[in-house]
Design brief:
This protein is α/β, with parallel strands linked by helices. Helix content is 37%, strand content 20%. The strands form five sheets. The protein has a six-stranded mixed β-sheet, sandwiched between helices. The longest helix has 28 residues. It is elongated. The mean pLDDT is 90.
């Protein structure tokens, strides 16, 4: 399949002139639309305008350029005698190579202050049609959507005089993936903007772009890669690794969990994550104090942990880490002195995580053969109902609210013990709440005395309250809603505990 004619219509003009020059040197006739034709002509290349080829001008301010039978017949004609003869009778020449990339929709929605009109104008129509037509007819046409592939196709043309079927197939698959991703970003943005109304639509699409391959998955025998959601502007895939070796699969899972905790708080907050659970978290007047309190929660588990802080890191924060081995440190920024000190920790991965611009409208969990979609758990009970005879003190209420927020990020059944605005014991991932109470109390030791206790859900029996009271816990926050709520309340009253119901649970499986 000799390449005699190429149609170029690109928004991203990186490498365009070099590609056009190389194609021209190989004797390929260039056809260009609008700005693409002007850029090539300014470089001294001979280019046939799309409007000259079709005999029809660009209209509607450039909205319609390439949507014309002369263009699409030239693309969609199969390499059969019948199709070629039909083109000859119509005076249409086949097009053998298409070079197209699309309007920057994802970049536009990421621009602060972009209006709906601005966003809608970046929905590409003609470019998508060109890509789909060329990719559908891969039997004859090569399609380029990624400037990184220009060199590969030029090498094929120089060495073989044509683009091999193997490469045409690969490029076609890439083009369809690109248009699917592009449409998905549009669909998701319109969904997030409320175009679908309330509830979930009948169909929902997600598109992901590979960021990098990982050395392995959760275990060395599993392959893995990191992807970012197309159009997303937050989260770990947007982070910059400024020091250390590449992140592992487990590093990323733990880093995401650590980031989620610190994003709960407006004040200086630090979270310490081990195996996807907080083993320590604290809020304080400054990041160093928060770090020390979070590490004190469970210093044994903090070894080999992932730490997130929601304030820029200075040298005193690094000094407070002492000689603790940390896998990953996340922060919105670092002072130069802090980076210099962190550089001495060769095994530490240091990440700069951009602040969250928007919260996602839904969460996806993949299951075999399908997926589960839900709205994210951004809930925080505003109205707390005191159900015991004793009212919590002001200090207890602060601790209860803090522990309640942290419990949201602990695997169920979750129990969090807190003193002030710092955890002192965490029980996670147990099949019954009472087991998590035992674990949290054992972690806290003497610090359980006077502690506030948060449960991610209701206590189905009074036994959890009995155990907590026996360790010295003085206040409890839980969802309520058990058929035995009165038994649980009676147990709290018997031991003089203050207990509040949230009417909301925070299960995390």
């Amino acid at each position: 399949m000799k390449v005699k004619r190429a149609l170029l219509s690109v928004y991203d003009k990186a490498g365009l002139v070099e590609l056009g020059q190389a194609l021209s040197d190989l004797g390929v006739e260039l056809i260009g639309s609008g700005g693409t034709a002007r850029a090539l002509r300014q470089a001294g290349l001979t280019v046939l305008e799309v409007s000259d080829l079709t005999g029809f001008p660009e209209v509607l301010g450039g909205r319609v350029k390439t949507l014309h039978p002369v263009i699409h017949a030239g693309l969609l004609a199969r390499p059969t005698p019948e199709h070629m003869e039909e083109l000859r009778q119509l005076g249409i020449k086949p097009i053998d190579l298409v070079v197209v990339n699309l309007y920057p929709f994802a970049q536009t929605i990421a621009t602060p202050g972009a209006s709906l009109d601005d966003i809608v104008e970046q929905i590409d129509i003609g470019g998508v049609a060109l890509l789909r037509a060329a990719a559908k007819n891969f039997a004859r046409v090569a399609v380029l959507v990624d400037p990184r592939d220009y060199g590969m196709v030029l090498d094929e043309l120089r060495q073989r005089g044509e683009v091999s079927e193997r490469i045409r197939r690969r490029l076609a698959q890439k083009a369809f993936t690109h248009t699917a991703s592009y449409d998905t970003v549009i669909s998701r943005h319109l969904y997030d903007a409320g175009f679908a109304g309330s509830g979930f639509p009948e169909a929902i699409s997600f598109a992901f772009e590979k960021v990098q391959d990982l050395r392995y998955g959760e275990n060395p025998h599993q392959k893995a890669a990191l992807y970012r959601e197309s159009g997303a502007r937050c989260g770990l895939p947007q982070a910059q690794v400024v020091q250390g070796k590449p992140l592992s699969y487990n590093n990323i899972i733990d880093a995401a969990a650590a980031l989620a905790v610190t994003q709960e708080f407006q004040e200086s907050a630090v979270s310490v994550i081990k195996h996807n659970n907080p083993c320590g978290a604290a809020v304080a007047a400054d990041p160093v104090t928060a770090l020390k309190q979070a590490l004190a929660s469970d210093p044994v588990s903090a070894f080999g942990s992932v730490i997130s802080v929601n304030r820029p890191v200075a040298a005193d924060f690094v000094e407070a880490l002492d000689d603790l081995f940390v896998e990953v440190l996340l922060a919105p920024g670092y002072s130069q002195e802090a980076l210099g000190r962190l550089a001495r920790r060769a095994d530490l991965r240091v990440l700069v995580v951009p602040e969250v611009a928007t919260r996602p409208a839904c969460d996806l969990r993949k299951i075999v053969g399908g997926g589960l979609v839900q709205t994210p758990d951004h809930g925080d009970a505003a109205e707390l109902k005191v159900v015991t005879r004793r009212q919590p003190t002001e200090e207890e209420m602060r601790s209860l609210r803090f522990a309640w927020k942290v419990a949201k990020h602990v695997k169920s059944s979750a129990i969090v013990l807190a003193q002030g605005m710092a955890t002192v014991g965490v029980g996670a991932g147990q099949m019954s709440p009472i087991d998590s109470v035992w674990i949290a109390a054992r972690k806290a030791g003497e610090r359980a005395r006077g502690a506030a206790m948060a449960s991610d859900a209701m206590f189905p029996f009074a036994d959890g309250i009995e155990v907590a009271a026996g360790t010295g816990v003085t206040s409890v926050i839980q969802s309520g809603g058990s058929v035995r709520d009165q038994d649980v309340i009676a147990a709290a009253d018997k031991h003089g505990l203050a207990m509040v119901f949230t009417g909301m649970r925070h299960l995390l499986h």
